[in-house]
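pinned: reference chain
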Amino acid sequence: MALGPLFILEVVILFSFIVTGIFMFVPKKDETVHKIFFSLAIMLGILVTIIDATSLQAEFVPQIIMAWLGLIPSAVAVVIAVAKGKPTTLSKLLVLLTSVYGALGYLIIF
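pinned: its structure tokens
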């Protein structure tokens, strides 16, 4: 696989998500820190999904749809976090799932 610009961008985003994911699960006394890293992880997951969906050619409609469906866990995580008033472990894991799905989608599946 050639090291194209999209691949390099994807690797940088995934490294950022690893750092964000670690700090999202590290226990802190301040709930604001969890909310900030939770929000950042959602944004990185959305960015990876956008890269996945828009980097494919127009004739790959099923793969494009599969890439956009990767945002469903993040949407559910946001609903859970809003309902509970703070990010729960389940919502954090769902955001993690979105990013892993996006990364696998770009690197392997699509």
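why pinned: The mean pLDDT is 83. Residues 31-54 form the longest helix (24 residues).
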